[in-house]
Write a structure and sequence with these properties.
- The relative contact order is 0.15.
- The strands form four sheets. This protein has a four-stranded parallel beta sheet, sandwiched between helices. A two-stranded parallel sheet has the order 4-7. It has a two-stranded parallel ribbon with strand order 5-10.
- It has eight helices and ten strands.
- With about 250 residues, the chain is of the alpha/beta class.
- The two termini are about 20 Å apart.
- It is elongated, with a radius of gyration of 19 Å.
- About 40% of the residues lie in helices and about 15% in strands.
- The chain folds into two domains: about 1-95, no CATH class; about 105-145 and about 170-250, UDP-galactose 4-epimerase, domain 1, CATH 3.90.25.
- Helix 2 (about 50-75) links the parallel strand 1 and strand 2 (about 80-85).
- Helix 4 crosses helix 6 (about 175-185) and helix 6 (about 175-185) crosses helix 8.
Length: about 250
């Protein structure tokens, strides 16, 4: 994620660390200055076609997660809210007070990857044709980044001890074909020809149909503010605006 898109993360009680994920020092410093809840999001992964890239990405996430969690353990941080990743096993082993969050596909303003992002890039290059991985019927929940942060804050502000986990998603689902239609519409295009490749799954590591059970977090009173359609619409509009202002990488 581009650092200049992190302006909304600034607040009197939170800061963004831009550092080497292999060292404990910056996270350790942050913990020693009185950090009560450490926000660690390491579940955002770029999709790669080569098994080597996928393996390297997985190893990198392990290193990031372990670095943050080791700093938490060493410095006695009392509570941790965490975007679900390999670190959940580390947390359980050391009996840390941890909330784990599993997100649907996260979208938002100025995003730099994802299916809608790819479609915008391709259609900026060729407004007459769109190549789509899979058969277009892959169906998933998409949640706006503000709802993700809201869920973590909502549950994190409750009184809790020990280990717990929550799924965070909308209650509606959108297909890849529908996302393509939305991008075409928001770009003001018409008569775009779709072509489909890769069978039902698309790329090998994809899960074509994903459903989340969010009853647990909703029982606490949390509700998302945007549906999947609304979240995608707003994120696509942001990408289109970025393109119009010359801030969007169209891949040219």
């Amino acid at each position: 994620m581009r650092s200049d898109f992190l302006c909304t993360a600034s607040s009197p009680t939170h800061s963004v660390l831009d550092t080497d994920s292999c060292t404990h020092q910056p996270v350790t410093w942050s913990a020693r200055t009185g950090l009560v809840v450490l926000w660690c999001i390491d579940g955002m992964k770029r999709q790669g076609r080569l098994e080597l890239l996928l393996m390297l990405a997985f190893i990198a996430l392990l290193m990031v997660g372990r670095t943050c969690l080791e700093a938490v353990r060493q410095n006695g941080v009392r509570r941790l809210t965490y975007a679900s990743g390999s670190g959940i096993y580390y947390c359980h082993m050391f009996e840390l007070n941890v909330l784990v969050f599993r997100f649907a596909n996260v979208v938002g303003a100025h995003q730099t990857h994802g299916v809608a992002y790819d479609f915008v890039r391709r259609l900026l290059r060729d407004p007459s044709h769109l190549s789509i991985l899979g058969d277009g019927y892959q169906s998933k929940s998409y949640i706006y980044v503000d709802d993700v942060i809201g869920a973590m804050r909502y549950i994190g502000n409750e009184e809790w001890q020990g280990f717990d986990y929550f799924n965070v998603a909308t209650e509606d689902y959108v297909t890849v074909r529908e996302i393509a239609d939305m991008v075409v519409d928001r770009l003001g295009l018409s008569n775009v020809a779709y072509s489909f490749t890769g069978g039902k799954r698309g790329w090998k590591g994809d899960v074509p149909i994903v459903r989340f059970d969010t009853e647990k977090i909703r029982a606490h009173g949390w509700r998302h503010k945007r549906t999947s359609v609304e979240a995608l619409r707003d994120s696509i509009d942001s990408m289109v605006a970025d393109a119009q202002e010359g801030k969007f990488d169209s891949g040219n």
